[in-house]
């Protein structure tokens, strides 16, 4: 189902995982039409106009004022190229998945549809590849046509960044992920690192005055510890502020995912009738406990870093960065640590004892 949306509702979709439909526009016939997925069609004049992401529908209820339908969103799937073929821009409409060259592999999981009897296998958080993206896909996965000269030239031309980092105070950011099998490569390292670097640059540009922004260096990958799955980055004075921003947004995204996993009232009633509620209620208690813990952590950050917290919640990052952070959450972030004070470069290995820690 395609729903026209103005950019004013962007944060509701990306952060709150909700889409609202005014009842004056009609009732979405989800069961009748076997609709399991929904996509906002962004009515923007910019390059992001159209459908760029498809969401699994978890639930549909009526709002408290009775004027709208509230649709809760689950898994989401990026499209490489925006879809623009909407018939009209005032009311929702139904479109088959085949329009997006997708098919359902399992409930809540979409994969590219068959093309020339071939199926590309991708995870739900992967970008869907097209012929236009084949070159980058081959470069990323198999090393085909990597422009080595470009990489080495850029490296040698950037020695000024190295000297700038050496002459400045540095800070540490550590992110722990759920353990990956040590016998397997770190398939996700490049997108994880690029997501952090992209968000770091955006946050610097958003939160800092131009004079401070120009003085700050980038974020650098420093260490990857297998077994513990800790990835460490180093940066200059902005890193503590960035760490708080990263933690706040990660907690908010985790909360939305957990809240989406809670049972709806209608589902609870049906399970009571079928006598299959016990296991689900146990799971509900676990989810509710995790949600409470994350809310407590947000309150802690709000209390101890009020200025940074307010600045963060007032500046929602672009969709692409939010999507990247959502993918990081899906990769299993479970702990974030950072230094609030400059590290002692002569005693670097001892700095882990002085880090602020937030478990997720």
Rg for CA atoms? 22 Å
- Low-pLDDT runs of 5+ residues are 116-132
Let me know the largest β-sheet.
5 strands, mixed
Number of structural units classed as domains: 2
Helical amount = 25-40%
Coarse structural class: alpha+beta
Commentary on this structure:
This protein has 360 residues and is α+β, with helices and mostly antiparallel strands. The chain folds into two domains: 2-126; 169-360, no CATH class. 38% of the residues lie in helices and 23% in strands. The protein is built from eleven helices and twelve strands. It has helices at residues 10-14, 134-142, 148-157, 159-166, 189-207, 210-215, 239-261, 265-274, 278-304, 306-313, 319-330; strands spanning 2-5, 18-22, 37-42, 51-62, 68-83, 102-106, 109-112, 171-177, 220-225, 230-235, 333-339, 355-359. The strands form three sheets. The protein has a five-stranded mixed β-sheet. Mean pLDDT is 82; it is low at 116-132.
In short:
With 360 residues, the chain is α+β, with helices and mostly antiparallel strands. It contains 11 helices and 12 strands. It folds into 2 domains: 2-126; 169-360, no CATH class.
């Amino acid at each position: 189902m395609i729903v026209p949306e103005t950019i004013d509702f962007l944060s509701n979709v990306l952060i709150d995982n909700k889409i609202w439909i005014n009842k004056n526009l009609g009732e979405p016939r989800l069961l009748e039409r076997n609709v399991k997925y929904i996509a906002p069609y962004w009515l923007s004049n910019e390059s992001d106009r159209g459908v760029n992401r498809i969401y699994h529908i978890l639930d549909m209820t009526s709002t408290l004022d009775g004027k709208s339908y509230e649709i809760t969103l689950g898994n989401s799937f990026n499209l490489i190229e925006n879809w623009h073929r909407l018939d009209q821009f005032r009311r929702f409409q139904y479109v088959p998945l085949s329009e997006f060259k997708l098919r359902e592999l399992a409930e809540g999981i979409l994969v590219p549809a068959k093309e020339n009897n071939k199926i590309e296998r991708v995870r739900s958080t992967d970008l869907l590849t097209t012929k236009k993206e084949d070159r980058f896909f081959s470069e990323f996965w198999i090393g085909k046509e990597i422009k080595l000269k470009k990489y080495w030239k850029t490296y040698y031309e950037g020695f000024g960044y190295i000297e700038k980092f050496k002459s400045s105070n540095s800070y540490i950011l550590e992110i722990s992920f759920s353990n990956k099998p040590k016998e397997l490569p770190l398939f996700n390292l490049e997108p994880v690192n690029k997501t952090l670097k992209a968000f770091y640059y955006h946050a610097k540009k958003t939160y800092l005055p131009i004079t401070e922004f120009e003085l700050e260096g980038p974020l650098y990958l420093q260490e990857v510890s297998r077994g513990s799955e800790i990835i460490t980055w180093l940066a200059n004075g902005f890193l503590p502020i960035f760490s708080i921003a990263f933690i706040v947004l990660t907690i908010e995204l985790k909360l939305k995912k957990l809240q989406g996993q809670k049972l709806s009232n209608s589902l609870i009633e049906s399970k009571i009738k079928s006598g299959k509620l016990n296991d689900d209620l146990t799971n509900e208690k676990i989810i509710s406990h995790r949600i409470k813990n994350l809310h407590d952590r947000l309150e802690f950050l709000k209390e101890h870093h009020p200025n940074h917290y307010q600045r963060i919640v007032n500046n929602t990052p672009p969709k692409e960065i939010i999507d990247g952070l959502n993918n990081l959450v899906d990769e299993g972030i479970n702990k974030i640590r950072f230094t609030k004070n400059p590290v002692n470069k002569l005693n670097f290995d001892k700095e882990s004892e002085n880090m602020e820690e937030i478990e997720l």
